[in-house]
Amino acid sequence: MMKRWLTLLSASLFVLLGGCSYLNTTSATLDYVKEATNYFSTLETFAAETPPLIQQVLDNQPAADELKAKLQQMKNDIQSFNTLEVPETVNAFHQEIIVQNNALAEQIDLYLNDINDGKLNPSTIENTNLLQPVQEITSIIKQIQKLGAQVNETFGA
User: Fold this and answer.
1) Global pTM value
2) Rounded distance, CA 120 to CA 135, Å?
């Protein structure tokens, strides 16, 4: 009788803990979706503000300082996002974002390295596409947001 009761209790705990694990995974996925959405907003702002600033930097020291600060801040945001704890459910998405983030960081480095004496070499603008990785990341984050919406709809979280 006692063995049977312990077996039943163990089975119940197993099911309960398995359910908790599933809920934790769901919660972690939704938390990641929120982080990705916040990062998306950062990218949108960066994409909107940077091109006009780049044009100003061609002959303007204060604009060069502002551009340097924006580029460095974006690199910091990239590093922060790349090191997020990621639930298994969105790991593939996160890896894709890391690849594009690294491409964006390389583009940013080109600009940072090219700004000398407050001026940007026009060939840097012509030969790089700073915002291409942003477009790729935006596409991935939109997929993550759809996943988050599906999780919310399914579990009413």
Assistant:
1) 0.76
2) 23
Give Cα 43 distance to the centre of its chain.
9
Nearest to 106 by CA among 71, 136, 58: 71
The DSSP call for residue 116 is: B
* Contact status, residue 104 vs residue 134, Cβ threshold 8 Å: yes
DSSP 36-80: HHHHHHHHHHHHHHHHHHHHHHTT-HHHHHHHHHHHHHHHHHHHH
DSSP H helices in the chain: 2-57, 61-82, 91-114, 122-127, 132-155
Over the range 66-101, which residues count as b (16 or more CB within 10 Å of their CB) and which as e?
ebeebbeebbebbeebeebebbebbeebbebbbebb
Asked whether 20 and 147 are in contact (CB, 8 A), the reply is: no
> Which domains are present in the chain?
27-155 (1.20.120)
pLDDT at 135 over 70: yes
Report d(CA 66, CA 63) in Å as an integer. Answer: 5
Residue 54's pLDDT band (cuts 50, 70, 90)? confident
> pLDDT tens, 63-88?
888 899 999 999 999 999 999 999 98
